[in-house]
UniProtKB/TrEMBL annotation:
Pfam families, per database record: AMP-binding, AMP-binding_C
SUPFAM superfamilies according to UniProt: Acetyl-CoA synthetase-like
CDD domains, sorted: 23DHB-AMP_lg (cd05920)
Protein name: (2,3-dihydroxybenzoyl)adenylate synthase
InterPro entries xrefs: AMP-bd_C (IPR025110), AMP-bd_C_sf (IPR045851), AMP-binding_CS (IPR020845), AMP-dep_synth/lig_dom (IPR000873), ATP-dep_AMP-bd_enzyme (IPR050237)
Residue ranges of domain AMP-dependent synthetase/ligase in the record: 34-407
Domain AMP-binding enzyme C-terminal as annotated: residue spans: 458-533
Amino acid sequence: MTQPQTHPLWPRPDAERYRRAGHWSGRTFGAHLRDWAARHPRRTALVDGERRWTYADLDAEADRLARGLRHLGLRKGDRVVVQLPNRAEFVQLWFALQRLGAVPVHAMPGHRRAEIGHLIRISGAVACVIPDRHARFDHRGLLRHILTDQTGSGPLRHVIVLGDPGAHRDFTRFEDLRADAAPLPLESGQEDPDAADLALLLHSGGTTGLPKLIPRTHDDYAYNARAAAEICGLDEHSVYLAVLPIAFNFTFACPGVLGTLAAGGTVVVSPDPSPQTAFTLIERERVSITSLSPPLVPHWMDEGARRAADLDSLTVLQVGGARLADDVARRLGPALEVTLQQVFGMAEGLICLTRLDDPEDLICTSQGRPISPDDEVLIVGPDGRPVADGLPGELLTRGPYTPRGYYRAPEHNRVAFTPDGFYRSGDLVRRLPSGHLVVVGRIKDQINRGGEKIAAPEVEEHLLTHPLITQAALVGVPDETWGERSVAFLVCAGPAPGTRELALFLQERGLARYKAPDQVVGITAMPLTPVGKIDKKLLAGTLAPT
Ligand code: J2J
């Protein structure tokens, strides 16, 4: 282990146990890709539209891009914020960074100035990779804004643009990385990455003012993907369709892109999650497995779209990121003639899956059980002590792919982790006799809008900068479409601003669009709990369906 201490590590006895058990393979992602390419060089690894890459191609592409990145000055340990949509280049770049030992910081396509600026600052990124435009948004302007912002962009030196860098002469064209003008040796002795090193940084859904970074190593993340792939029965005939954003932990490694590649299968990227686009790809590429968030499910079940396509090849449909309603779960399997797999996961680690051969009832009413025999789960009450079996409590967890702390956040770690290294998920769950978990609620100050996480305090802080708003509370309430929608309760000096006005205000502050409140309710005073906190339960209750 050569890197400076930026986060707590797994204690040595645990690390040794995970190695002995064979969970941690001691191989880096750069080495894994070499192995896969040697094993099946001519199999198709990656498909994007009309473009296809074999494993040998992907391996060579990763090398070429790694040389280009090194030529640019990137080194082992450098952080690189990657905000790319579902394109093959995400995967190629990701492995190129792994070859160098550089660390991708996964950003979502919907992130805007506030989120990208924050990710750049807290990771200390030296480079940021963006598309020119995506979903009618110009990402180059966003980066220009960050670079000229007074709060600073730290050591950020390179902006790499997939597509047209436009008028920004100091931005690097992604394609130029492949030019390979001055080939540099890649392997250079002591600079080689180690499997215990940081491989990537994911961001937390957040419960405080700003999201934290989650440090994932080669060893732990590769195990995460492999263990999930085994449970899903992936092999070299599997074809995975990346429908949700590829940077999402679910899409990328549960088993997703990495699990499919580890099994020798084929990854197909879908440019958008609509059934029209996805069904065409499923039919054409004989897709066998994909993953969705609950709000997409009704669209996929829509009869008209289904009848027009041949979905025979699709055998497993994973749904996760937010609670799937039991009645929708029951209708899904028969409607699409697939096996439903519920996925309850978190970027912090722990992944729970229903097994493909679980009884129907369990598949439709539970959110699965942990994927590793070495995942430890505690369900505790408000006093921190385990609750009696079957009762709801907060899920605490620790294990071979759940890091013991956030990146560069020692103070937050003291709250978010127990002294013996359990992550406090903030999720309320109940354990069934089979070991499966049912997610029954949440104690964290977060709204889960159809899988997109909104940290209430982050949005509240922004709302409070509005000249008319004196107090703000963002609350999640049940919603037909999103599972949960966000409602801003506001105390204002004058009439409360409307939803559209607030959305524009937050957009100007650079906040991602999905964080804008779905509804605004003006109130005259905030109700308080006996200890003087805003009583969000009571607020939510005023809107609950009767
Ligand atoms: C209820 N809540 C759920 C579910 C996640 C796979 C799948 C999802 C994520 C993810 C992920 C839920 N029912 N089925 O990383 O690899 C809520 C919980 C959890 C939080 C984590 C993966 N599945 N959740 O959603 O880091 O509250 O990861 O703690 O974005 O989503 O969010 P995130």
